């Protein structure tokens, strides 16, 4: 379905692009979709797999979807005509909605690979997997490794596979190291959970050069965090991570009352969404919903109305028209 349209006289259907069914943001969107279906008589919230947030932004610009989940990093690149929008720019991005998650990316190696540090990832006999090419998280990782100075060497060792295929490829011994991630300090995405269940993994030690180069990447946060989400011992209590925040973005053509109701449902029924996706954020605190806004980018007027009614609107934010 294209832009928001009525299924009948009472129900407004909105289509929301997601990176994939096994991604954390995809699963969180589907969790919210189910809650909206249970709680609303007037809105249908439909998740649609676009293959990645860059693709979702393009679908939005083509008028094919009403909103999407995307990272702030890839949204900024879209606004600035930077990779992957450099050669084929878009007109803009949708209005900001509310925060859906923070992802912590890090390197893991497979038992028997011989990898000890991030320097070893560059060895000619090592095969790495760096997330699907169409994902914004992949572009984020590309930018981080370019800042470190190792992107080209890593890509020379890369296996191209989708998340649906990577657990099997890892299990078959086709991969020596991969980028994984956790969400909101809680759990792993579906594909990484399957890798964790089927293969012996351990954390790759990051060199000082790697950490310093990553920290110097424009627009990227880095940190050392406690390990979470894995059912096995990955040989470390902490991992170095580059992280990204994801939000929902809603079309200016989405009616204000629809965006308001979706935000209100997420606020009041976040625990129901968490029953489906454990990493769904705690939206009982409205400040969590508004914690990731990019400066000078409009917030959807329906969400702005909701935040105002909750006493959480900040006049430094920009309200969409």
CATH superfamily name of the largest domain?
A: Periplasmic binding protein-like II
Briefly note the structural class of the backbone.
alpha/beta
Helical segment tally? 12
**Straight-line N-to-C gap:** 24 Å
CATH fold-level assignment of the largest domain: D-Maltodextrin-Binding Protein, domain 2
Mean pLDDT: 94
Sheet having the most strands: 10 strands, mixed
Question: How large a portion of the residues is in β-strands, by DSSP E?
Answer: 15-25%
Structural Rg:
20 Å
Categorize the overall geometry. Answer: globular
Low-confidence segments: none
Proportion of helical residues: 25-40%
The top level CATH class name of the largest domain: Alpha Beta
Question: Can you tell me the CATH architecture of the largest domain?
Answer: 3-Layer(aba) Sandwich
How many strand units? 10
What string gives the helices and strands in order?
A: EEHEHEHEEHHHEHEHEEHHHH
Overall number of structural domains? 2
Report on the structure:
The chain is 34% helix and 21% strand. With 321 residues, the protein is of the alpha/beta class. It has 2 domains: 5-101 and 245-309, Periplasmic binding protein-like II (D-Maltodextrin-Binding Protein, domain 2), CATH 3.40.190.10; 103-244, Periplasmic binding protein-like II (D-Maltodextrin-Binding Protein, domain 2), CATH 3.40.190. Strands 1, 2, 3, 4, 5, 6, 7, 8, 9 and 10 form a 10-stranded mixed β-sheet that branches. Helix 1 (24-39) crosses helix 10 (270-276), helix 4 (136-148) packs across helix 8 and helix 9 crosses helix 12 (301-309). The mean pLDDT is 94.
